[in-house]
Design goal:
single chain, 8 helices
């Protein structure tokens, strides 16, 4: 983030190996649109995927329900078909999004991001994908939404 403030050069695709994430993923995780945009403009690998858990920058945006960043990443070539090592994909993450640590329901724009994702015309394999992370039970995105008690109507 020092690069954005003109303090030092940066390798936009360098991985932060201790946390299995890139600078771009950190910017997305922090919800910093300006940082995300700057990193993408300087060559950050939008589709780099963690071998540890399968996260990409776009999946981090889905986890947080961040419509602005998620939409931007999709417009710039993010893969909508990536999934975590436990089988969760963008739909699973966005329907269970609570906006990240410390967020309140008013901070979550996951419905807007869900609409953006659905407008992409997803293949059935993504819509019907099941997770393998629930103690032997398998859930698709709709079941995840119901299980987590999400009311998917926009206020």
């Amino acid at each position: 983030l020092n690069f954005i403030h003109g303090q030092s050069p940066i390798d936009a695709s360098r991985r932060k190996s201790s946390d299995f994430e890139t600078a771009l993923m950190v910017a997305v995780d922090e919800g910093c649109f300006a940082c995300t945009k700057t990193l993408v403009e300087h060559g950050a690998d939008i589709n780099w995927q963690s071998d540890y858990d399968g996260y990409t920058a776009f999946l981090v945006a889905c986890y947080h329900g961040n419509e602005e960043i998620g939409s931007y990443l999709l417009q710039n070539g993010a893969s909508i078909e990536a999934s975590l090592t436990n089988g969760r994909n963008a739909l699973h993450l966005v329907v269970t999004s609570r906006g990240g640590d410390g967020a309140t329901d008013k901070d979550v724009s996951s419905i807007g991001l869900l609409q953006v994702i659905l407008e992409k015309g997803l293949p059935a394999k993504i819509i019907n994908a099941q997770t393998n992370d629930s103690g032997g039970a398998f859930f698709n995105a709709l079941a995840h939404a119901a299980r987590h008690g999400r009311d998917l109507e926009r206020e």
